[in-house]
């Protein structure tokens, strides 16, 4: 037992170290020539995640070209749009490039480079909608991306706005694609968003959506830096001027903005062709199947490492609790174990995950935060499983061992534990299965697990049905296989009982 336990422990440490190095590529912005640039890759054609899973788009290419010109190593950090400015002011980012419009409000918090693109707001509506202008949106349900100029336009804030009707209902989404999906599913009447993304979104959904060119005032996109960082601002402006002068800028406009998109939807009306085309779009074109496979790998790794950690911690906790039985009264150990188990079981794992990731790890090392959270969470349940498993062994076994001249520890080790393990192992298997399903929330801390993979596919293809059913099936199969294996294993254990 001791040997096996040691093996499990060292395996766990090894795995943790492994993932630490894997996730440890942290972006530091202390060395001279690095530039950490935030974006929100939910805004095609300016920024999006490409089929290889990396940030791409006009803005990304532009900032890299500027960096190249001025001798900066550019690292891109993808985050929520509304967190960009705050991250710049706190120094978490050197700059942001995110199709961000220069506004008076934002200028209070950050400094902007020279403008590099002029945009307007468009309205996306269902193809047969009666809405033809901004003023038609009064009293309607509108979806927007949270904290964007489209949001400000749609929100009846002051009297200068076109939309002043207080019954207008604005639904704010973290991603433009989610807003579009809401529209597609009939949850709102319109989406207000910048012109180029609007065109991209409609292009990908041309059988059901159209856009309305609104004569709103124009907006200018620029790169944002921390207020007073004049040196960086000067470099960025100089770099921008250079890439404009040497033709790179126009080339990027050609590739990213005036080029053709690959996410065109089918126009066929044959239901079978449509079905196959959808499958192709969801699972092949966007590399969806790779996402799902990778996600599955991550889901399994997190669950497996967490259950190992849970068993190690749970074993210690169980012993701490059992000290109560050995001594016949509450001990300091059993008290600590009880409080620990009480707290862990009394709070939602989602909350534990967020605390671990945001408070303990400061939004870094998501994978480790997830393993630790679920390991700690699971240990509380495992402790009870192990404790109950040991207690279930008949008292006579202990007495028998002792009367044979074994010490307490020896009896535990050679007589009680081997029997307890037969009670414990099947229950641990169930714990593993429960964990697999529970880890579906790690997407909240930006881990690309199986559930999150479906999220990605949905936002690329605007199809919710196929990816969601697909992950449900994958979870189901995984758990079926595990259950079968466990049953087999349990039967073999029981076989040992028949002499
Ligand atoms: N231009 C708009 C704004 O500044 C929308 C930008 C959204 N960008 C993004 N990467 N999601 O508010």
UniProtKB/TrEMBL annotation:
<feature type="transmembrane region" description="Helical">
    <location>
        <begin position="296"/>
        <end position="320"/>
    </location>
</feature>
<dbReference type="Pfam" id="PF00528">
    <property type="entry name" value="BPD_transp_1"/>
</dbReference>
<dbReference type="InterPro" id="IPR000515">
    <property type="entry name" value="MetI-like"/>
</dbReference>
<keyword id="KW-0812">Transmembrane</keyword>
<keyword id="KW-0472">Membrane</keyword>
<comment type="similarity">
    <text>Belongs to the binding-protein-dependent transport system permease family. HisMQ subfamily.</text>
</comment>
<keyword id="KW-1003">Cell membrane</keyword>
<dbReference type="GO" id="GO:0006865">
    <property type="term" value="P:amino acid transport"/>
</dbReference>
<dbReference type="InterPro" id="IPR001320">
    <property type="entry name" value="Iontro_rcpt_C"/>
</dbReference>
<feature type="transmembrane region" description="Helical">
    <location>
        <begin position="464"/>
        <end position="486"/>
    </location>
</feature>
<keyword id="KW-0732">Signal</keyword>
<feature type="signal peptide">
    <location>
        <begin position="1"/>
        <end position="24"/>
    </location>
</feature>
<dbReference type="GO" id="GO:0015276">
    <property type="term" value="F:ligand-gated monoatomic ion channel activity"/>
</dbReference>
<keyword id="KW-1133">Transmembrane helix</keyword>
<dbReference type="Pfam" id="PF00497">
    <property type="entry name" value="SBP_bac_3"/>
</dbReference>
<dbReference type="GO" id="GO:0043190">
    <property type="term" value="C:ATP-binding cassette (ABC) transporter complex"/>
</dbReference>
<feature type="transmembrane region" description="Helical">
    <location>
        <begin position="354"/>
        <end position="376"/>
    </location>
</feature>
<feature type="domain" description="ABC transmembrane type-1">
    <location>
        <begin position="296"/>
        <end position="486"/>
    </location>
</feature>
<keyword id="KW-0029">Amino-acid transport</keyword>
<dbReference type="InterPro" id="IPR035906">
    <property type="entry name" value="MetI-like_sf"/>
</dbReference>
<dbReference type="InterPro" id="IPR010065">
    <property type="entry name" value="AA_ABC_transptr_permease_3TM"/>
</dbReference>
<dbReference type="InterPro" id="IPR001638">
    <property type="entry name" value="Solute-binding_3/MltF_N"/>
</dbReference>
<keyword id="KW-0813">Transport</keyword>
<protein>
    <submittedName>
        <fullName>Polar amino acid transport system substrate-binding protein</fullName>
    </submittedName>
</protein>
<dbReference type="InterPro" id="IPR043429">
    <property type="entry name" value="ArtM/GltK/GlnP/TcyL/YhdX-like"/>
</dbReference>
């Amino acid at each position: 037992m001791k040997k096996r336990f040691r093996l499990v422990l060292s395996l766990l440490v090894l795995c943790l170290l492994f993932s630490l190095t894997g996730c440890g590529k942290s972006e530091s912005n202390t060395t001279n020539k690095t530039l950490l640039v935030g974006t929100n890759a939910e805004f095609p054609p300016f920024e999006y995640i490409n089929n290889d899973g990396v940030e791409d788009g006009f803005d990304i290419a532009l900032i890299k070209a500027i960096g190249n010109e001025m001798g900066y190593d550019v690292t891109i950090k993808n985050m929520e749009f509304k967190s960009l400015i705050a991250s710049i002011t706190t120094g978490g980012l050197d700059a942001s490039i995110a199709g961000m419009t220069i506004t008076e409000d934002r200028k209070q918090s950050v400094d902007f480079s020279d403008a590099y693109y002029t945009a307007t707001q468009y309205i996306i509506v269902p193809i047969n909608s009666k809405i033809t202008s901004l003023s038609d949106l009064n009293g309607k349900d509108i979806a927007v991306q949270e904290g964007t100029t489209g949001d400000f336009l749609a929100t009846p804030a002051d009297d200068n706005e076109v939309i002043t009707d207080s019954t207008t209902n604005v639904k704010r989404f973290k991603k433009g694609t989610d807003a579009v999906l809401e529209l597609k599913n009939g949850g709102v009447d319109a989406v207000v968003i910048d012109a180029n993304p609007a065109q991209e979104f409609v292009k990908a959904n041309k059988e059901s959506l159209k856009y309305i060119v609104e004569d709103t005032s124009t907006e200018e996109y620029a790169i944002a830096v921390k207020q007073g960082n004049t040196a960086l601002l000067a470099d960025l402006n100089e770099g921008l001027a250079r890439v404009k002068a040497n033709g790179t800028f126009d080339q990027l406009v050609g590739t990213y903005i005036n080029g053709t998109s690959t996410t065109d939807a089918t126009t066929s009306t044959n239901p079978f062709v449509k079905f196959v085309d959808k499958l192709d779009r969801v699972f092949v074109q966007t590399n969806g199947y790779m996402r799902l496979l990778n996600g599955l790998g991550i889901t399994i790794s997190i669950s497996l490492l967490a259950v190992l950690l849970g068993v190690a911690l749970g074993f210690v906790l169980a012993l701490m609790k059992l000290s109560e039985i050995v001594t016949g009264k509450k001990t300091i150990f059993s008290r600590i174990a009880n409080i620990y188990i009480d707290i862990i079981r009394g709070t939602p794992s989602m909350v534990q995950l967020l605390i671990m990731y945001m408070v303990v790890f400061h939004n870094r090392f998501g994978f480790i935060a997830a393993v630790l959270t679920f390991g700690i969470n699971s240990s509380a349940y495992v402790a009870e499983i192990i404790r109950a498993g040991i207690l279930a062994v008949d008292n006579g076994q202990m007495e028998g061992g002792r009367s044979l001249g074994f010490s307490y520890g020896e009896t535990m080790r050679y007589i009680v534990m081997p029997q307890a393990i037969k009670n414990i192992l099947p229950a641990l298997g169930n714990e593993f299965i429960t964990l697999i399903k529970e880890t579906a929330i790690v997407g909240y801390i930006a881990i690309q697990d199986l559930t999150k993979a479906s999220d990605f596919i949905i936002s690329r293809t605007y199809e919710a049905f196929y990816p969601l059913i697909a992950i449900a099936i994958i979870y189901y199969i995984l758990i079926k296989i595990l259950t079968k294996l466990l049953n087999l294993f349990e039967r073999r254990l029981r076989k040992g009982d028949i002499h």
